[in-house]
Amino acid sequence: MRVCTVCALKENHPGVTIGDDGVCSLCTLDFAGELMENFAYTSRVFEEFTRSGPNPHGDHDCLFMYSGGKDSTYMLDKFVHEYGKRVLSYTFDVPFESAHAAENIRLAREKIPATFVVDSDDDNIKAMMREVFNRTPATPGKYLDEKLPCVSCRSFFVIRAILYAFRHRIPYIVLCADPQQILTMESDVREVVRGFYRTFGRGLTDELFRGELEELLFADEDGLPRIVFPFIAMRYAYDPDRMVAELKAKGLYTSSPMETHCTLFPLLNYYSFANWDCMFYKLNAASHRRSVRRDENHSRSTFSITFPRAADLPLIEERLRRVVLDIAGNRGDPVAQERELIDLFRRLDASEDAARFVAHGFLAMRKTAADLGITLRSTGAET
Hints:
single chain; mainly alpha; 15 helices; 5 strands
């Protein structure tokens, strides 16, 4: 199997092609025109938002999607204290959120003067995730197909936020995707809704959202909220390590990015390995290798998860693949698997406590899958 000579993506990675020169379509920026158009649009919306005055229709200038992670905590603090916006902090209580993210939310409520709202819909988001994990994806895949469960979960609660903002006449929705995630996200409200219909069909979509989405499709443009990506303005200065340090100095963040990850992180890796032969963060790892090859002074990607310069990422991916598929197949010694996982995450610069925390999530993967009604397909022993 051919591998990109720059970023090490394999030729079977969803949506990626490798040219005769051995370089993949991401490294050669075959989609640069589309990316620039997306950057230009999101930049215009962000500038429009920062210039806008108070919302004449209500008490809040924006609905801020707050997860408790470092990106959203950093920008929530900035929007309230530096931008002076009247913020409605909207948290969708995802049933897969880690306890450490919940603690960060508690700290923010104590220290940041915003209006905090919590929304939830456990039954429907679990039903959607069950459908995603249990389907057999079509091949060859499209770009980001290896992340479909994660993208679908995010789309679900973004649409819930859109509905909330629409009903309460809040003109902007702030979404703190990191700079490269922005490239893969739809910025138009109607297209977010249409994309969900395309993925899940009319029957399941109407069931999940109780038939409320058609109103968004046919509403006047002026009545629809606009999505703001604040990190678009700081994409060249985006530094996850600095942001975490600033938040910890303010007492707004007590964990690591790896610890505050979704509790489905192990299942997301299983899905990527089982269907696409890659780890969940393969695009992030490829971005890291690309940046190091092109600028040896730039040792990290612009995704939320950073990678140490000395990490042997292909070897880490292969070791993670073996242990994830063994756990899914109920093979191997859990004690040895815990040691292996802790070592892997320590090599990715996680602290001992963070590595152990994430390892325990991987060891509980079969129970998590059973609780959600997700079938782990049998795979052969990995060598």
